[in-house]
Amino acid sequence: MQPGTVVDSLLSGACVLFTLGMFSTGLSDLRHMRVTRSVDSVQFLPFLTTDVNNLSWLSYGVLKQDGTLIIVNAVGAVLQTLYILVYLHYCPRKQALLLQTAALLGVLLMGYGYFWLMVPDPDTQLHQLGLFCSVFTISMYFSPLADLANVIKTQSTQRLSYSLTIATLLSSASWTLYGFRLRDLYIMVPNLPGIFTSLIRLWLFRKYPQEKDKNYRLLQT
């Protein structure tokens, strides 16, 4: 086996392992919803946006014929769809969530129609779809910055997930290296913010330890 092939296989395996690990962190929310039969403290929008992101990258993977992208995002889309369905099942007010879902799916379908019908050239399709996926992923990574500012304001990391932070860091790093290896900027660039925001979270965990927050709340009670 060629050295380059070994590196590619290791990077591909790392991308699959770490990304599916990141997606599986939602299983704790799934368990919480099933046990409590409620959606208290569980957010719906991250499930929905991640599902749309998975479906977009799945299309990019199919167009690029990249098995790693196809496997990761196909499994990710199934998991996120499962989370969405369970959330809708236990949520008492479904109308607003259904409207959000319909709106994002409508945008996704319009995008599919544009890429597959209005852009017949495969190379142009690949570049435009890659650009869309990159912008969408970057916006997802930067969207929680308001929450990070709130962590600094409250000096509490109770709302952050340490396991998700580690999984996101490993996943983003592996995809960045994978994109660099393939010389694919659409894969490499959007994962750099994931590394950046994960490092900020780790710094916040070190500055405001959760155990310290827990003890503080106990003292207050």
Automatic annotation (TrEMBL):
Pfam families: MtN3_slv. One of its GO terms (molecular function) is glucoside transmembrane transporter activity. It is found in: Cell membrane; Golgi apparatus membrane. The keyword Repeat applies. It is a multi-pass membrane protein. InterPro entries: SWEET, SWEET_rpt. Its main location: membrane. It comes from the Eukaryota. The chain crosses the membrane at residues 6-23, 69-90, 97-117, 129-148, 160-179, 185-204. GO terms for cellular component: Golgi membrane; plasma membrane. Signal peptide: none annotated. Keywords: Cell membrane, Golgi apparatus, Membrane, Repeat, Sugar transport, Transmembrane, Transmembrane helix, Transport. Interacts with TRPV2; the interaction probably occurs intracellularly and depends on TRPV2 N-glycosylation. Belongs to the SWEET sugar transporter family. Mediates sugar transport across membranes. This is Sugar transporter SWEET.
